[in-house]
Design goal:
Elements (H helix, E strand, L loop, with lengths): L4 H8 L10 H13 L3 E10 L5 E12 L3 E3 L1 H11 L2 H21 L6 E5 L2 H4 L4 H11 L7 E6 H5 L2 H14 L2 E7 L16 E4 L1 H5 L3 H16 L3 E4 L5 H9 L4 E2 L8 E2 H12 L2
Parallel strand pairs: 2-4, 4-5, 5-6, 6-7, 7-8, 8-9
Antiparallel strand pairs: 1-2, 1-9, 1-10, 2-3
Helix pairs in contact: 2-3, 4-6
This protein binds ligand C2E and calcium ion (3 copies).
Length: about 280
């Protein structure tokens, strides 16, 4: 049944269908998606753990697919990474974040730093720093309003080159954080070799109910603080998880307990409400 091409093609284009997706067809879709502006961003607030005030937000990619409807990144980022499409898609994300920040500034709206997810392949490109610089300059955006989130893999494959690139970005005022921290297989030694500002604790440690997850979490928070880094707890869904993170002096938190990722217009409203507290 799975070998029957016609049937699979039909199933691929069923709106809302969760059936098997033909990867080669998605690749043609990427080109059109960029040209037709089918991608858009949502923003999830990150808040100060003690006060709940919004400190920044993470930009998360979404795809308004003409046949499949709303497609989440889990369904297409891995394919984009394998095929190399993540590079132009990732560049679009950086440009769109700069454009959005500029629009907020021009409208006199409150603005916070926006974090962008950068995949290893995108970061390892020779012209990565140049592209970031160009995007900021094109929209006249202060580099202090931009953060990049990298995974351990992006950095450990070539620590020396990562150290140089991150040094240049941080000299400009860009914030750098390590995403999904703790789930990678790397030795921790890369942490004191590369300049970073924050560690984002993977949500598996926070959502794991047993003592195991919590003790790893505590250890990572202590490690981050010893290295003078801001520690961010991800995937906070309950009051209880928040209380535990606060108790362990986690600096900032992010998760459905505060807000799901929301469209730009809704994020502006959250921010306006947060800053008058
Ligand atoms: P991530 O960078 O770890 O982003 C956090 C993910 O956790 C987001 O899923 C977010 O919606 C979800 N999340 C936030 N709070 C909670 C919570 O309290 N509970 C639960 N269960 N989940 C929560 P999303 O938007 O589906 O993104 C999934 C992954 O796709 C991201 O994980 C990131 O690795 C990747 N991604 C998203 N946007 C981009 C992008 O622009 N570029 C690249 N390269 N990757 C992206
Ligand atoms: Ca992230
Ligand atoms: Ca993460
Ligand atoms: Ca992740």
């Amino acid at each position: 049944e799975a070998k029957e091409g016609g049937r699979n093609t039909f199933r691929l284009y069923m709106p809302g269908s969760r059936s098997f997706v033909d990867h080669s067809l998605l690749v043609y879709d990427f080109e059109r998606a960029l040209a037709e502006r089918e991608f858009f961003l949502e923003f999830q607030p990150r808040v100060h753990a003690e006060t709940g005030v919004i400190t920044s937000a993470e930009a998360l990619l979404r795809w308004r697919h003409p046949q499949r409807g709303r497609v989440m990144p889990g369904a297409f980022i891995p394919i984009a990474e394998r095929t190399g499409w993540i590079v132009p898609i990732g560049r679009w994300v950086v440009e769109e974040v700069c454009r959005q920040i500029r629009e907020w500034l021009d409208n006199g709206q409150p603005v916070v730093r926006i974090a962008v997810n950068v995949s290893a392949r995108q970061f390892q490109r020779e012209n990565f720093v140049a592209h970031i610089t160009e995007a900021l300059e094109a929209h006249q955006v202060d580099p202090r309003l931009l953060e990049i989130e990298l995974t351990e893999t992006a950095v450990v494959e070539d620590v020396e080159s990562a150290r140089k690139k991150l040094g240049r970005l941080r000299d400009m005022g860009i914030t750098v954080s390590i995403d999904d921290f703790g789930v990678g297989y790397s030795s921790l030694s890369f942490l004191h070799q590369i300049p970073v500002d924050a560690l984002k604790l993977d949500r598996s440690f926070i959502q794991e109910s047993g003592v195991g997850g919590w003790s790893v979490m505590e250890t990572i928070i202590d490690l981050g603080h010893r290295l003078n880094l801001c520690v961010v707890g991800e995937g906070v869904e309950t009051e209880c998880q928040l209380a535990l993170l606060r108790d362990r002096r986690c600096d900032e938190v992010q998760g459905f307990f505060f807000s799901r990722p929301v469209p730009a217009a809704d994020f502006v409203r959250l921010l306006a409400a947060s800053s008058i507290q």
